[in-house]
């Protein structure tokens, strides 16, 4: 079995935690954390439901008007040619510029 440095440190941390806290206390801590996560998630969803009347984009009246079949700007539908043209970006390869700058002596940290 091969173990890298990060895995070794993680395993040592778990073993140290079990040694110091004991297995039962660790289970309690994990359960308390999961309860907190569930409570936080519920409160976020509840606040979202109270504040926002329109929670889904397909229910937004402006979006419905935009995609309206009779007089909407994007009447072809969500996957039509115009929506594809307006809402999607295009990739432009700029690696030649970076290569030219490296040849001039510029150094990058990426």
UniProtKB/TrEMBL annotation:
Iron hydrogenase small subunit domain mapped to chain residues: 31-95
The keyword Iron-sulfur belongs to this UniProt entry's keyword annotation: yes
Keywords per UniProt: Iron, Iron-sulfur, Metal-binding, Oxidoreductase
UniProt xrefs under InterPro entries: Fe_hydrogenase_HydB (IPR008953), Fe_hydrogenase_ssu (IPR003149), Fe_hydrogenase_ssu_sf (IPR036991), TAT_signal (IPR006311)
Gene Ontology CC: one annotated term: periplasmic space
GO molecular function: electron transfer activity; ferredoxin hydrogenase activity; iron ion binding; iron-sulfur cluster binding
A Pfam family that the UniProt record links to this protein: Fe_hyd_SSU
Protein name: Periplasmic [Fe] hydrogenase small subunit
Organism: Pseudodesulfovibrio hydrargyri
């Amino acid at each position: 079995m091969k173990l890298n440095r990060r895995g070794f440190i993680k395993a040592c941390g778990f073993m140290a935690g079990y040694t110091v806290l004991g297995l039962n206390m660790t289970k309690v801590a994990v359960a308390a954390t999961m309860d907190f996560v569930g409570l936080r998630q519920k409160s976020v969803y509840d606040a979202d439901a109270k504040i926002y009347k329109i929670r889904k984009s397909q229910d937004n009246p402006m979006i419905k008007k935009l995609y309206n079949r009779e007089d909407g700007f994007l009447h072809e539908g969500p996957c039509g040619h115009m929506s594809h043209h307006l809402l999607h970006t295009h990739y432009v390869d700029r690696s030649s510029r970076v290569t030219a700058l490296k040849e001039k002596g510029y150094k990058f940290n990426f």
